């Protein structure tokens, strides 16, 4: 069976329908899951092809991996969800673990734990640093 989000057969990552109920409870009225999924899809496609995983015939798989990591992060921390620029942050972790999206997510999540305030609505962390 194909993943409804990335269209990869056997994909274990949640599609929008599977994630919707959990996300709505956490996120509340600030943004719907459909909006978040749309931001993730647009952000992943906009990534430049400066890395090997996003060049040529590997681009579609690379974009799918970026989507997987961002969906997982949006579900993990629905206070942040997915912000502009997060796709660019996910790519180096996917380059480090090109065959293991789970490990790339784990490392990305650890990084975000240190800088997550910078991604909260209102950019409170950035304001404090200025």
UniProtKB/TrEMBL annotation:
<dbReference type="InterPro" id="IPR035969">
    <property type="entry name" value="Rab-GAP_TBC_sf"/>
</dbReference>
<dbReference type="Pfam" id="PF00566">
    <property type="entry name" value="RabGAP-TBC"/>
</dbReference>
<feature type="domain" description="Rab-GAP TBC">
    <location>
        <begin position="23"/>
        <end position="130"/>
    </location>
</feature>
<dbReference type="InterPro" id="IPR000195">
    <property type="entry name" value="Rab-GAP-TBC_dom"/>
</dbReference>
<protein>
    <recommendedName>
        <fullName>Rab-GAP TBC domain-containing protein</fullName>
    </recommendedName>
</protein>
């Amino acid at each position: 069976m194909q993943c409804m989000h990335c269209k990869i057969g056997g994909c274990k990552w949640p599609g929008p329908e599977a994630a919707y109920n959990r996300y709505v409870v956490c996120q509340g009225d600030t943004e719907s899951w459909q909006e978040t999924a749309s931001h993730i899809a647009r952000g992943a496609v906009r990534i430049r092809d400066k890395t090997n995983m996003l060049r040529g015939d590997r681009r579609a798989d690379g974009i799918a991996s970026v989507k997987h990591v961002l969906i997982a992060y949006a579900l993990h921390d629905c206070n942040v969800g997915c912000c502009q620029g997060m796709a660019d942050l996910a790519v180096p972790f996917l380059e480090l673990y090109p065959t293991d999206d789970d490990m790339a997510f784990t490392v990305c999540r650890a990084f975000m734990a240190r800088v997550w305030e910078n991604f909260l609505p209102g950019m409170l962390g950035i304001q404090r640093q200025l």
